[in-house]
Design a protein that fits this description.
It contains eight helices and no strands. The chain is elongated and about 60 Å long. The protein has 170 residues and is mainly α.
Length: 170
């Protein structure tokens, strides 16, 4: 676990010290990944687009929120900002990481709710969106979506184009 934490700290230090102008972008990404936004923003948008997808987003949010809490009790992982100071791992060569309001939370930090809950709840939305895009691509450009004979799975067929005859029209 120390290797994973030290890799995360190295990444945070590099982002904060070498790319300081991206600070607001990463704070915005953190805000968008906050699990409470699932109920405030993502669920209403998904429900408006499709009742089935909206209800899926809501149930997956509830279940993964609960699982995240259970895993935090079991794993009791430290938050990276606090781990730097409490582990003694960086006593010889201290790192310079900046503290933000989201890094001041005092509960267990692993597994990350921003990743686990938001990623799981956005899955039905992305699945529905990719299905719609595949359907519309097939409707407007049927030859683009057909694929070559013997293609390896449906995913390879979606973006295949016949380049063997450059003068062929689709």
């Amino acid at each position: 676990m120390e290797y994973a934490m030290s890799a995360g700290i190295a990444m945070a230090e590099a982002l904060q010290n070498r790319l300081p102008w991206l600070e607001n972008v990463w704070l915005w990404v953190t805000f968008l990944g906050d699990p409470k936004n699932l109920f405030l923003f993502y669920f209403p948008v998904a429900y408006y687009a499709s009742r089935r997808v909206g209800i899926s987003v809501l149930w997956i949010s509830f279940i993964t929120e609960w699982l995240n809490l259970v895993f935090k009790w079991i794993l009791f992982g430290e938050r990276p900002f606090w781990w730097v100071h409490e582990s003694g791992y960086y006593n010889q060569a201290p790192v310079k990481v900046h503290q933000f309001p989201s890094s001041c939370e005092t509960g267990p930090g692993s597994p990350s709710g921003h990743c686990m809950i938001t990623g799981a709840a956005l899955w039905p939305m992305m699945t529905a969106l990719s299905s719609q895009m595949a359907t519309r691509t097939h409707r407007c450009c049927p030859r683009l979506a057909d694929g070559p004979p013997g293609a390896h799975g449906a995913g390879t067929k979606l973006l295949w184009a016949d380049c063997s005859n450059p003068h062929a029209r689709g």
